[in-house]
Amino acid sequence: LAVAGGVATYATTWVERLVLESVTESAERQKVETQLAKAQLDTLRLQLSPHFLFNALNGAMALIGSDARGAERMVASISDFLRMILRSSAEPKVTVERELALLHHYIEIQRVRFRDKLKVNIDVDDRLATAMVPSLLLQPLVENSIRHGIGPRASGGAVTVRMRADGDMLRIDVEDNGVGPSSKRSKQRGTGLGLSNTATRLNHLYGERYSFETSSAPGGGFRVNLSLPLEHFRESASETEDLLEVQS
Questions:
Q1: How far is CA 243 from the centre of its chain?
Q2: pTM for this entry
Q3: How does pLDDT run across 168-200, given as a tens digit for each residue?
Q4: Using CA atoms, how far apart are residues 127 and 131, in angstroms rounded to an integer?
Q5: Residues 175/180/186/187 CA torsion (nearest 10 deg)
């Protein structure tokens, strides 16, 4: 009996050790997978910065001969915009308020170039200010509309950004009245870097709990429809300070 009891104790200890090692290995594996996913997200987000910078600097260079002061203002705005990106580079998600502040700087850059030929409408419920969205989500979508939809039109056009709560989901629409996806100049707009990176990042962050669709807008133009889980951030003192710093 004593021998049997000792064997049973040894077997139990051995099983417990195996379970503990399995749990530890699983935790380590999950930690590594999480780190890899974050690295992939960071890479995707960082790809957008030089992509934006290349397009923006090209716009500034085009202005040098005809509007030197405008080009100077544009470069200053680019500097402010990139500074904001660096502040949020370590955060996979930010509040809608911060994301809209970043978008505002981008729009100001484009207005130097397009002047009165570009109109951007922001339709966002104030109650969504603390909702969480992927950082650098809106700028590539709006850039896609301006570059491929509004840019080719001599008369310019408008881009509209809408956000609304729909139950436990956050609906985001970015729509333009530009040349539309059927144009030869914009036939690839549905597979551009900004759109493809956005779709990949959403898949990393939300798995199957999101939708991302592109389509022709009524009457011409292009539309992107997003649906994300509605998550609110409980504002802390440090976050309030960050928001004030970004908006200053």
A1: 18
A2: 0.72
A3: 999 999 999 988 876 544 444 445 667 888 888
A4: 8
A5: 110
